[in-house]
Amino acid sequence: MIDFARLQVLRSIQHHGSVSEAARVMHLTPSAVSQQVRQLVIDVGVELLERDGRSTRLTSAANVLLGYAHRAARSWEEMLAELHAVDGGEHLAGRLAVCSFATAIPALVAPAATAMITAAAGAATVAIREAGTADSLTLLLQRAADLAVIAAPANPEFDDPRFEQHPLIDDPQDLVVGAQTAFAEFGMCRLADLGREAWIEPHRDQRALIEAACTMDGFVPRFEHQADDWNSVLALVRADMGVCLYPRMAPIDIPGVRRIPLTGTNAPVRRVFTCVRAGSAEQPLITAYRDRLREQAGRTPQGEATPHGTH
Fold it and tell me: Do 81 and 282 form a contact (C-beta atoms < 8 A)?
């Protein structure tokens, strides 16, 4: 009988691309991870890792085994969903762990949690953790999270057998500039007009969105400054150090910053999804919370931004 925990180690190596990175994320030593793989080799009777220059890679046999491991993980989640539905699924109770990127927490995640806890009359709880998309996927695979709110383009491929994704909301991206810049007087702007501007580089997921949008409009953004925290980004924008794209769902509480809608066929939009482990979507707490998220997304204004306001 194969130990499913060892299969999880192999799945982690596949997800993170190396034994050392899988060990770091799993809080194990590389030798401990290698030992788990060696034991799995004994269980199945075929080699699972092979040398590739100075590194190692999964063998063809390992990829076959991983296909079965993904299907087994999905079946396990489906079994849990059915068990919970039989055991009082109409009455919400228990703990749901949710992770999300920062700007979705006040706009979507926290209000949805409050609504579900209220509906469950306190029998259900929601634990919320801020995490970027890559970290959120790791938390799902480690079972440290049950549902993640993630954003394109960093989301997994839709045919990834480990996850199920569902569209939640399309969040337009507005240009933010200092109030004293020439752009501040514009009612609207095209992304293509910003090719010569200095840019503020935000956190990893937003940078990927900016780079993809600018590439579609024929230029590479010139990042001059970097800040992960949105307040720091906006402070740099206010000081006329550069421009940035900012999610419309997020308010601007710093004076001296102007939000300008972008026009054109390539006006960037951040697609937001819910993501769960494959097979777990019908678990009662997950289903109930996704319903609350969709309700909250329907209340989130995604129309025209106010060009000259600071909010």
Answer: yes
Amino acid in position 265 = T
- Whole-number Å distance between alpha carbons of 217 and 175: 15
Over the Cα atoms of the chain, what is R_g?
A: 22
CA dihedral sign of residues 207, 269, 176, 192: positive
The topology under which CATH files domain 4-76 is: Arc Repressor Mutant, subunit A (1.10.10)
* pLDDT tens digit sequence for 285-305: 999 999 999 999 998 766 444
- Report pLDDT digits (tens) over 15-44: 888 888 888 888 888 889 888 899 989 889
Return the amino acid letter for 238. R
How far, in Å, CA of 181 to CA of 201, rounded?
A: 19
Kindly give the interhelix angle for 4-16 and 19-26, rounded to the nearest 10 degrees. Answer: 120
The partner residues of 223 in beta bridges, in order of sequence, read 199
Report d(CA 258, CA 181) in Å as an integer.
Answer: 9
What's the mean pLDDT in 198-225? Answer: 93
CA distance 109 to 36: 37
Alpha-carbon gap, residue 151 to 110, rounded angstroms: 17
Instruction: Work out the burial of residue 150: count CB atoms within 10 Å of its CB; fewer than 13 is exposed, 13-18 middle, 19 or more buried.
Output: buried
* CB-based contact 3:43 (threshold 8 Å): yes
Which CATH number is 92-169+271-299 given? Answer: 3.40.190.10
Task: Tell the burial category of 196 from Cβ atoms under 10 Å away from its Cβ (0-12, 13-18, 19+).
Answer: exposed
CATH number of 170-269: 3.40.190.290
